[in-house]
Each structure stands twice: as C-alpha cells, then as structure tokens.
Amino acid sequence: MKEHDDETCAHTSYCPYRAELAPRFIGALTKKTYAMVLAGGRGSRLQQMTDWRAKPAVPFGGKLRIIDFPLSNCINSGIRRIGVATQYMAHSLIHHIQRGWSFLDDQFNEFIDVLPAQQRVKEGWYEGTANAVFQNLDILRSCAPEYVLILCGDHVYKMDYSRILADHVAKAADVTVACIEVPRAEGREFGIIGVDEEGRVTYFHEKPEHPAAMPGRPDSALASMGIYVFGARFLYEQLIRDHDDPESGHDFGKDLIPYLVTRNRVIAHRFADSCVNMVGDVPYWRDVGTVDAYWEANMDLVQVTPELNLYDDAWPIWTHQKQLPPAKFIFNNDRRRGHAMDSLISSGCIISGATIERSLLFLKVYVGDYSLIQDSVILPNVEIGRHVTLKRVVVDKHCKIPDGFSAGIVPERDKQCFHVTERGITLITPEMLGQTVHRVR
Fold first, then answer.
1. What is residue 373's DSSP assignment?
2. Residues 58, 62, 68, CA angle at the centre, nearest 5°?
3. Are 23-301 and 328-433 the same fold in CATH?
C-alpha cells in the first residue's frame, strides 16, 4: 500500500486511507470530543420493569446495566469527557454511575458528569432529546470540545466511536448519523433515512407508517441508531435555532435532523464500519425496549457463539463490580443435583439441588432444591424456593418465589397475576407477588 503522511491526513477533509488512520489522528479526534448520553427516558414498553428505574439503569447480561454499553464504548474509543442527561426515576442510574464509573481522573481532564434537568436556562423538565442538550449548553461550552457525540443510553451494542468521528471529518460533514439495516416491517419504530451514492442523507422520516425500502432491498430499511456527530459550534447554533422555533418538538429525530437534511451536509455512517467483534456480516445492535426484546437479547448471550462478545479483553464492558463469592452448585444425587447447562450464572449465586437450562442468572440468585429454571432471565437478589418451575420468564429484582410455584407453563393462568407478552414471556415483579420492596437502587 502507498505510504501517506499522518499529519496530512489530520488536516485534509478527506483521507483515502481512513480505514488505517494513524493512532495520532484518531487520538486527536477523540480528545477533542465530548459525548452526551441521553439517559432520561422511562422506556414504558418494558412495562413494570421501569416502574422504579429508568430504562438505561435496567440490569442486563448478568452483572451489567444497559447504560454500561455506550459508556464503555466511549472509554474504549478514547472519549473520556462524558455527560449523562438523566430525568425519569434517576436515583438508581445516578447511584450506578457514581459507584461504577468513578475511576476517571479529572486531573487528566477525564470525567462523567451527571446532568439532571435543573432549570439552568429557566426551563422545566427536558422536553425532548435536543432540548436536553440545549439546557446544558453552558456546560458543553465550558468543556470547549471541537466535536459533540450524541448517544442514546438504552441500546446494547459495541461500537468504536473513533471511526464515526474519523468518517465525519473525512467527509467534511455538518452532521453524521449512524445507521443500521433493519427489517422493513420494523421500520416504523425508527427514524428511516435515504442516502445517495456518496452516502449523503437525502431524507429522514421519524417513525413513518410506511417505511421506505432500501434500493434493491425491498424487505429492508435503513434506520438511524440515534447516534449523531456534530461540530460543536454548528450544534450550538442549531440548538439555539431549534429552541426559538415555536413549531418544534425539540427532538433530534423528529425535528432537528429532518430540518438539517435539506439545508446542510448530513452524512450516513454504516454501523458495520465501526461495529466491534462483529460475527459474520450482521452487526449486533439491540433496542431492548420491550420485554420480548429484553428477554431475547439476554438469551442471545447463552448461545454457544453469542453475536455479542462479552469475553473480549480488548473491548471490555465496564461496570460496577460488587465483591461477591463465586457461584456455587451443591448436591449430586439422582433427583437432587445442582447443575446448569447452556446458561450464564453470575457471582454470588447458589444453585442448591436445582436444574438451570438455557437461562441467565444475575448476581446473588438462590435456587432451592428440585426446582427447574428454563429459558429464563432472573435478575439480582431473587430467592427461588423448592419445587419451583419457571419457563420463559423474566423475574425482577428482589422477588421471593415461594415453594411449589410455577410460571411460564399456562399463559392464561399467568395473565391473572402477571404481565404476559405477545410472545408468551411472563414478567414477574415483587409487587405482582404481593411483596413489599424498598426500591432505591
């Protein structure tokens, strides 16, 4: 390959070698970037799972929280100036960030700021995603970034943000939008975009009733991931303009991006170009916004070769690690054997003469004698009694499942007390069991 000069690449609008850009160039971009993570949403489609916590604070994958994914992507990409805008039921989210993400050192200009709605500009609650950033303009300006990366705090994926930043600079974009191919039938849940041969966005339709198909792909649509890169000054100008527009809903997807598409240079960045640990040709990204999607994404992890790799030392998912003993399996008789197959069992769990199949158990779960857990997701601090059968269920934190209990076998019976999804997944919470829990985290 022809040699090229690193400094030239760092100062030209387009670099034909950007797939192999020098670390100096990438490092310069990430150090000049401030990431704003929008984490204020409830996520009402998760039903009772978000009655006491914001969607980004929902536990995931055994010992993680959903917000750990965008935060870890930032750290692994070299972006260490981060703001997290919080709003709904924010205590557990703030607690998690304070305990689990305090390792950044402000002496080296590394930090995570928690940014609740606090009427900084005579405003009330955050009224939309763009308004959430607008209300923190003074904080953004004080950090003096050259680029601002806008992220959602409630998606599960592994992405190298330095690559979308490099793409943004290389293509001289005003705005860069990360996008992913989705089934056209699901397109009405996303912002759908069209692109020309150059990769420039030609339209942006937020949650259209009839999503447009990709050229030559009648069953697929190109969807926005809710990830945007802006030049900082340009972003400030557009947020102020949007704030002054009485017709705007002050949302990136509904208002600001569609406005810019017809007036400025908006470029699409394909997630496949920046996905980390991609298995095959399909990049892994999940909006775990429903109980079904949440169950499926956790079940993905128990596969022999998961599409989402949590075992990669080069791109770890960071979190708050509690000091707990290893998982323990006890008893080995014919009818009373503690064992697990095709499952993930987290620290602090005790499997006492029970069988676990194709399931994911979070921290400090106890399963009593002769119980059977299949195809289920059991969140932290759950106590499961003896002779219990659970199939295709999600059990929320702090539940105490009594002896002889069963769920996930007769959906019509489950519906009398619990939430049952369209796909037949049963959600169980302490309140549904008539149990009182002091939920603060």
1. E
2. 50
3. no
Amino acid at site 175: V
Joined tokens for residue 435:
């149990």
Question: Which tokens hold the place of 95?
Answer: 């607690």
Backbone angles phi, psi at 354, to 5 degrees: -120, 165
* pTM (global) more than 0.85: yes
Which fold, 328-433?
A: UDP N-Acetylglucosamine Acyltransferase; domain 1 (2.160.10)
Distance CA 230, CA 399 (A): 44
Q: 23-301: CATH homologous superfamily?
A: Spore Coat Polysaccharide Biosynthesis Protein SpsA; Chain A (3.90.550.10)
Q: Please list, residue by residue across 380-417, b when 16 or more beta carbons sit within 10 angstroms of its beta carbon and e when fewer do.
A: bbbebbbebbbbbbbbbbbbebeeebbbbeeeeebeee
pLDDT value at 310 more than 80: yes
Q: Please report, in range form, the residues annotated as the binding site.
A: 126, 191, 206-207, 224
Q: Can you read off the two tokens belonging to residue 275?
A: 């996905």
Residues annotated within a binding site for alpha-D-glucose 1-phosphate: 126, 191, 206-207, 224
Reading the block at residue 109, the tokens are 């200009």
- Is the distance from CB of 209 to CB of 173 less than 8 angstroms? no
Q: 157-181 pLDDT, tens per residue?
A: 999 999 999 999 999 999 999 999 9
pLDDT band at 120 (very low <50, low <70, confident <90, very high): low
Q: Would you list the domain boundaries of the chain? A: 23-301, 328-433
- The secondary structure of residue 431, as a DSSP letter, is T
pLDDT of residue 122: 67
CA atoms within 13 A of residue 204's CA, in its CB half-sphere: 28
Q: Write the DSSP string, 328-366.
A: EEE-BSSS-B-EEES-EE-TT-EEES-EEES-EE-TT-E
| 3-class state of residue 295 by DSSP | helix
CB of 231 within 8 A of CB of 244? no
**55-60-65-70 Cα dihedral, nearest 10 degrees:** -90
Task: With both helix axes pointing from N to C terminus, report the angle between 23-31 and 161-170 in degrees, rounded to the nearest 10.
Answer: 100
Crossing angle of the two packed helices 161-170 and 68-77, in degrees rounded to 10: 60
Distance of CA 317 to the CA centre of its chain: 12
Side chain identity at residue 415, one-letter code = K
Helices and strands of the chain, counted as H and E runs: 11, 29
CB 21 within 8 A of CB 178: no
Here the tokens at position 68 are 């750990």
